[in-house]
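In response to reviewer comment 3 from the previous cycle, which asked for concrete evidence that the modeling workflow produces usable outputs, we include below a single protein chain processed end to end. The sequence was submitted unchanged, and the resulting structure tokens are shown without manual editing.
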Amino acid sequence: MMSLIVTGTIGIDTVETPSGGRHEELLGGSAVYFAAAASFYCPSRMVAAVGDDFPAPFMKTLESFNDLDLEGLEVRKGSKTFRWGGKYHDDMDQRDTLFTDLGVLEEAPPVVPESFKDSQVVFLANSHPMVQIGMLEQVKEPALSVADTMNLWIDIAKPELTQLLGMVDGLVLNFDEAEQFTGHRNPVSAGKHLLELGPRFVVIKKGEHGCILVHRDGICALPAYPTEDVVDPTGAGDSFAGGLMGRLTARGGHDLGSYESVREALAHGTIVASFNVESFSLDRMRSITRADVNKRFDEFAQMVRLD
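The workflow returned the following structure tokens.
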């Protein structure tokens, strides 16, 4: 099987939602949600950093993923782990950031271990584009590289983000971020604009309304799985990406980024994300098996069939 590496954040979260109340000291971060989702499909390697205040039970949770290689996880003495707090609005689509303590994120980024540099599939979770470029340049010859981004980097680091787009095969971002970057309100037009900057495909997320794939070889739209009980949307985008990239890695083949393979993998990302939002942190994803994922995938496949 091909090797999958993710570079991103590990954090300690405080989250408040209308249906679930307020929860503090939660394990979070882009790399955590991504790796948990990918674990249903393939082994993965994590590159991230935490401070020496990182709770021991959280480390045990990460170690409980048998197929997650933590050699690239740096525990920095005297440093503080990234912390974030957010409160969701009643519609669960919008949230207010209550606080952000960057901690180790203000320091030099972690280094990709020598044993990870042969990784064939790379996912660059949300961080400053120059950090993402630095990570990508440490991997020798990836067969597929995909990046995530956010509105902050579009605001303050658009030239660097544009440089990154010329180096990766795929980009994952929210529909409002696609509009912000390109000036196109229509997501298909925005996606086509982004393709001109280098990527082979762009995945534009629309939350509960699903996603749109704009690929050099085609366009498709996929609805979200109709989850009845949304408790906490935190990490939904990262778990979506983890399912997507995990499925692509497990599928393998000579053409990882083809239209057909990405389209099929999007459905897997959608399914894993639908489990993630049903509880806080990794609580729901730690309670399910691959059989549960497969069952929901089959249900979803029947929902979207037209023949």
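Residues 52 and 77 are 5 Å apart (CA to CA). We consider this sufficient to address the reviewer's concern, and the full set will be provided in the supplementary archive.
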